[in-house]
Amino acid sequence: MQHLTTETIINAPIEKVWSIFIDFDSYAEWNPFIKSIEGEMNVGNTLKVVLALGDKNSIFKPKLLRNEPNKEFRWKGSLGPGGLFDGEHYFLFEQLPDGTTKFIHGEKFSGLLVWPIMKMVGKDTHIGFNGMNKAIKERCENK
Questions:
Q1: How far is CA 88 from the centre of its chain?
Q2: pTM
């Protein structure tokens, strides 16, 4: 298993951060990493997620695991049959005492092909996570 986690502090209340995060229709306007998310947002449903990895877009169809307003959004996807390369992608939201929000963005990767695939896309994935973090911070603080 390999775990990638990033975080940023956003100078906005958690409700504002959540509302911007969950507005998937506007992702094309501001999100450099996740280009779109489509599907019913009920736990157990399959989503269609388009990610920008490096200079190309990749389409994934993960299963939604959690959708808890102002707290957590999580999905799990696989490349090929389960067990070869799986990723549990998560977004966590923590209200801090000073009224700011900690946005935690990460993924737990597992499966037989974790090391070779992460060697190919790990750097781009990390760049993508940080790019999204920076973009949501800017959107929340300037909107």
A1: 10
A2: 0.93
Burial of 91 (0-12, 13-18, 19+ CB in 10 A): buried
Distance between CA atoms of 24 and 119, rounded to whole angstroms?
A: 29
- Give all domains of the chain, ordered by start, each with its CATH number: 2-142 (3.30.530.20)
Please say whether the beta carbons of 103 and 93 come within 8 A. Answer: yes
Residue 42, both tokens:
């009920």
pLDDT tens sequence for the chain (143 residues): 889 999 999 999 999 999 999 999 999 999 999 999 999 999 999 999 999 987 889 999 999 999 999 999 999 998 877 688 899 999 999 999 999 999 999 999 998 888 888 888 889 999 999 999 999 999 999 97
Q: Calculate the CA 26 to chain-centre distance.
A: 15
Pairing mode, strands 63-68 and 56-60? unpaired
DSSP tag of 47: P
